[in-house]
Amino acid sequence: MTIYYSLTFLLLAAEMVTFCVVVAPLPYAVRKRLFRFLSESAIVAKIAYALKISFISVAILFADALQRMFRITAESDMAKQSGHASDVRSETNFAARKFYAQRNTYLTGFCLFLSLILTRTFYIVLDLIHTQDEYAKLKQQVSGESRDKIAANGDQTKLIEELKTKLAATQAKERDYDILKKQANQQAAEYDRLATEHNAAIGAKSDKRVD
Fold first, then answer.
1. 63-74: b (≥16 Cβ within 10 Å) or e
2. Which of 28, 208, 24 is nearest to 133 (CA)?
3. Please, what is the Cα angle at 188 between 183 and 194, to 5 degrees?
4. In whole angstroms, what is the distance from residue 89 CA to residue 193 CA?
5. Where are the transmembrane segments (predicted)?
6. Cα separation, 166 vs 7, whole angstroms
7. Which are the contacts of 103, defined by CB distance < 8 A and separation ≥ 6?
8. Which of 2, 94, 166, 175 is in the most buried spot, having the most CB atoms within 10 Å?
C-alpha cells in the first residue's frame, strides 16, 4: 500500500473512532462540554480546515481508483475474450490488480462516506444539545411563572378571605343596628303610649277639680 493510501486508512480509522465517541451514550454534562469544545475551539477549527483539504485529496484518489478499477476490469475482460489470460500467471496478475484497485476504491469511498455521516451526525447531536438547553430554560421559565401565579393566587385568596371577614363584620353590625332600631322604635312607641295615658290621667283629674 502506498503512502497516500496508508494515510487514507489512518484517516478512516480516526473517523471511526471519532464517530464512536460522538454516538456514545455519554452523560449530558460531559457531552455538552465535549461538543462545546469541538464547536468553539480555535485549534479544532484549524484541524477541521486541514481535514477538508485532505478530503479533497481523498476525493481525487477515489476518482482515480474508480477509473483504474474500471480500466483493469475492462482489460481483464478483453484478455479473457482474446485468450491472453489463459495461463495462471496472467490470471493472477489481473486478479491482483483488480483486487488492489477495488481495495483502493472501497477505502477512499468509505472514507468520504464516513466523513459525510460524521459531519451530519455531529451537527444533529449539536442541535439536540441546543434543543435540550432551550427546553431546560423554557421549563425553568414555566416553573417560575407557575410559582408567581401560585403566589398571586395565594395573595388573591388572602384578600378574598379578608373581604369576606369584613363583609361578615359589616353584616353583623347591620343586624345589631336593626335590632337596636327595632328596640328604639318599640321604646318610643311604649313611651308614646305611656305619655298618652299620663296625659289622659292628668286631664281627667283637672276636670274633676273644676267641678
1. eebbebbeebee
2. 28
3. 125
4. 151
5. 6-30, 42-63, 106-129
6. 88
7. none
8. 94
Kindly report the CA angle at 187 between 184 and 190, in degrees rounded to 5? 150
Three cell numbers, residue 35: 461538543
Location of C-alpha cell 274633676: 208
**Whole-number Å distance between alpha carbons of 160 and 165:** 9
Ordered DSSP codes for 45-84: HHHHHHHHHHHHHHHHHHHHHHHHHHHHHHHHHHHHHHTT
Q: pLDDT digits over 67-79, tens only?
A: 888 888 887 777 7
pLDDT tens digits for range 125-164 = 888 888 888 888 887 777 766 666 666 666 677 777 777 7
- CA 147/CA 153 separation, integer angstroms: 10
pLDDT band with cut points at 50, 70 and 90 for residue 24:
confident
In whole angstroms, what is the distance from residue 71 CA to residue 90 CA? 16
C-alpha cell at 209: 277639680
All residues at 6 or more sequence positions from 54 whose CB lies less than 8 Å from its CB, including other chains: 11
Q: Which residue has the cell 477512499?
A: 108
Q: Which set of grid coordinates corresponds to residue 105?
A: 476504491
Helix ranges (DSSP H) in the chain: 3-23, 28-40, 42-82, 88-210
Q: CA 190, CA 179: separation in Å to the nearest integer?
A: 16
Phi, psi of 70 (to 5 degrees): -65, -40
Q: How far apart are alpha carbons 109 and 15 in whole angstroms? A: 13
